[in-house]
């Protein structure tokens, strides 16, 4: 790490406030102020700071290694201070290649995860839902698909202290089937999917660019909202449904078990509302079934192809949202 990078890290990342004002100078969402113990930093924030200190080639190596360990990698990286542009890490992700067995294919393939077109599913939350979004994603990609538990996304319930600077990061991880699906009651995802995860509260105005990018890039948005604030978020939910390419799945998180002991699913146009039971496994099953129906619809017993797009193709979206593309820098 160069001297300039060390100075930037210490002044821009480890201080709670800067002369320009820190993006996250308020208390975290759990109500605990990190100012009480500024020497304790979450692993997410450490990673965020390190990625800002790297040159383009070292950043690419780190992101490749994270992907090799099946960890989520940042696609949109917020700046350290107010006024700094968000970065789209196209160059940083260029080195990531993965192998999997596509639907209806006999042999596995190896592809660049930047140029390969896949369905994109974005997870985000409004307010403080009582179901962990990252834990739910890990369940959908892991045990519900017959895989072992794996922390693809860092779960805030297991992260202490809560992340502060890395909020607003848009992460990506890939579900890649390795064997022929046995369907497991309809919850086995039919094919490969790019999953996006927007860190923090998507209602926060500071994350408006990331939210718009994540919605417009996605074929499906899975939105978590607590039942106590569901009615207050209807207008924002309508905006999300207008931006998303194909469908919005709204998970209304109940804090208690409903009297009929069943999740209620309501479909209207391009919006599906799932009034969930407070159990991750049950919610995850509902999401998997909905994704299969939305992304791989069946028409007259004939399976139709899913909507797909590559991460590389999202450059045009960055231009419209004033998001900096790292590949345009001279150092790349």
UniProtKB/TrEMBL annotation:
Residue stretches spanning the membrane: none
Record-annotated Up-regulator of cell proliferation-like domain positions: 41-332
PANTHER family: CHROMOSOME UNDETERMINED SCAFFOLD_52, WHOLE GENOME SHOTGUN SEQUENCE, GTP-BINDING
Protein name in the entry: Putative interferon-induced very large GTPase 1-like
Organism the protein comes from: Stichopus japonicus
């Amino acid at each position: 790490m160069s001297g300039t990078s060390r100075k930037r890290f210490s002044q821009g990342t480890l201080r709670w406030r800067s002369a320009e004002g820190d993006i996250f100078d308020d208390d975290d969402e759990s109500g605990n102020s990190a100012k009480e113990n500024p020497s304790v930093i979450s692993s997410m924030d450490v990673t965020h700071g390190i990625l800002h200190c790297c040159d383009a080639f070292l950043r690419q190596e780190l992101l490749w290694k994270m992907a090799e360990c099946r960890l989520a990698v940042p696609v949109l990286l917020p700046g350290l201070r107010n006024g700094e542009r968000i970065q789209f890490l196209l160059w940083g992700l260029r080195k990531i290649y993965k192998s999997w067995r596509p639907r209806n294919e006999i042999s596995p393939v190896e592809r660049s995860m930047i140029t390969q077109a896949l369905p994109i599913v974005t997870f985000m939350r409004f307010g403080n839902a009582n179901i962990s979004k990252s834990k739910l994603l890990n369940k959908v990609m892991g045990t519900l698909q017959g895989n072992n538990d794996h922390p693809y996304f860092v779960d805030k319930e297991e992260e202490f202290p809560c992340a502060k600077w890395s909020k607003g990061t848009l992460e990506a991880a890939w579900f890649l089937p390795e064997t022929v699906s046995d369907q497991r009651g309809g919850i086995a995802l039919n094919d490969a999917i790019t999953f996006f995860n927007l860190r923090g509260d998507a209602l926060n105005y500071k994350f408006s660019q990331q939210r718009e990018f994540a919605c417009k890039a996605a074929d499906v948005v899975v939105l978590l909202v607590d039942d106590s604030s569901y009615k207050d978020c209807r207008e924002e939910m309508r905006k999300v449904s207008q931006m998303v390419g194909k469908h919005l799945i709204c998970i209304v998180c109940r804090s208690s078990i409903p009297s009929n002991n069943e999740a209620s699913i309501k479909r209207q146009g391009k919006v599906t509302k799932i009034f969930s039971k407070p159990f991750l496994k049950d919610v995850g099953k509902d999401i998997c079934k909905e994704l299969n129906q939305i992304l791989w619809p069946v028409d007259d017993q004939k399976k139709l192809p899913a909507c797909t797009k590559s991460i590389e193709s999202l450059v045009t979206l960055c231009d419209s949202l004033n998001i900096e593309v790292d590949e345009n820098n001279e150092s790349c």
